[in-house]
Write a structure and sequence with these properties.
29% of the residues lie in helices and 24% in strands. By secondary structure, it is an alpha+beta fold. The chain is elongated.
């Protein structure tokens, strides 16, 4: 009985892993490749009005930030080791403009208020080395094209009769 219990506990992670791999969610490498393909040429800065709609880490060196649902930027932030594990991020900006080489992505927990920044507890700052706009429509199209679609002909028994 004891061996059966141990065997069941050892089989559980493999079973759960198999279920997770069957999901329709793309791999991290595929997401990264999709964003790279949808990203435009590098630019020096972008306008940012202090509210992130969404964000997605792409490893420890890239993050996608959305200011609005259809407005996104791919930011290169080399060596940002906390990025895949953080719950929240912040962006520094000057006069509502995020600039390459000057502004940073802040990672960490507990918010980014002025008191936390002055106390040095606002997270690890990661300098932005490249900014590229993301064509969100192109990104969505790539996701739709990759989605599997199965087409099967109907059986004659399930086809409704035609009207004369």
């Amino acid at each position: 009985m004891k061996h059966l219990r141990i065997l069941a506990w050892l089989a559980l992670p493999m079973t759960l892993g198999a279920c997770a791999s069957l999901s329709g969610r793309p791999s991290d490498q595929q997401r990264r490749a999709d964003y790279e393909a949808a990203a435009g040429p590098a630019q020096n800065s972008f306008l940012f009005y202090n509210s992130l709609w969404s964000w997605e880490p792409l490893g420890t060196d890239r993050v996608v930030v959305y200011a609005r649902p259809k407005q996104a930027w791919l930011l290169d932030v080399p060596g940002c080791i906390d990025l895949p594990f953080t719950n929240t991020i912040g962006l520094t900006s000057n006069l509502h403009r995020v600039s390459v080489g000057f502004d940073k992505v802040l990672t960490g927990r507990g918010g980014f208020g002025i008191d936390r920044v002055q106390a040095g507890r606002s997270g690890i700052p990661c300098t932005i080395t490249r900014i590229r706009p993301v064509d969100v429509a192109k990104l969505k199209q790539a996701e739709v094209e990759r989605r599997p679609v199965e087409e099967k002909p109907r059986d004659s028994a399930t086809v409704p009769p035609s009207k004369p």
